[in-house]
Amino acid sequence: MTADIEEILVSRDEIREMVRQMGRRISQDYQGEELVLVGVLKGGFVFLADLMREITIPVDMDLIAVSSYGASTRSSGVVRIIKDMDLNVAGKHVLIVEDLVDTGLTLKHLKELFNTRGPKSVRICTAFDKPSRRKVDIEVEYKGIEVPDKFIVGYGLDYAGKYRNLPDVCTLKKEIYTNQQ
Ligand code: IMP
Ligand code: MG
Question: Is the CB of 69 under 6 A from ligand 1?
Fold first, then answer.
């Protein structure tokens, strides 16, 4: 698997430091409030697992699964809810936890969906941000590390279902994409 890596763009140490700072900020901002962290599967689960352990106030968590990509590296713009969350978020603060904001289409859709469920607030938290690719105007309150317009894998991010378990965020060698049908 590591033989497929072209370059490490964000190291595990940089990621760990970003998660620490983000956890600290969230703990301060939501002090005394009821917070539900909602991880976006599949990619967001790695970040969620790390982030919640850096949060020092009581939180509840849930997971939602959406699909916007097939096995391709470009967004189809179609967001499909594959698994909805179980918790009722009425009257609670919701923080959506994502791996990466690219076009913003997924989060725009999710934010609108959560807003119909009577929460006290809905905010977005992302580990990585690719602002150059944004197609819709969307406010992201907690942004981790900005990445260039390159397809990246690792730390939850996949290519065709693989490489989510890489601890660093990397680009893949060109032949990995060109060998794919
Ligand atoms: P968006 O709807 O275009 O913002 O895309 C959101 C989702 O697409 C992200 O949460 C990722 O799961 C996936 N995605 C976007 N860019 C990449 C990438 O470079 N590598 C892996 N997954 C990506
Ligand atoms: Mg994804």
Answer: yes
**Any idea what the CATH number is for the domain that residue 69 is in?**
3.40.50.2020
Q: What is the pLDDT along the chain (181 residues), one digit of tens a residue?
A: 889 999 999 999 999 999 999 999 999 999 999 999 999 999 999 999 999 999 999 999 999 998 765 555 555 556 788 999 999 999 999 999 999 999 999 999 899 999 999 999 999 999 999 999 999 999 999 999 999 999 999 999 999 999 999 999 999 999 998 876 5
Is there an atom of ligand 1 within 6 Å of 169 CB?
A: no
User: What would the two tokens of residue 149 be?
Assistant: 């317009």
Please indicate, yes or no, if residue 5 is contained in any of the structural domains: no
* CA dihedral sign of residues 42, 97, 100, 102: positive
* 79 alpha carbon, closest ligand: 1
Ligand having the closest approach to the CA of 9 = 1
Q: How many CB atoms lie within 10 A of CB 56?
A: 12
Range of the domain at 115: 13-147
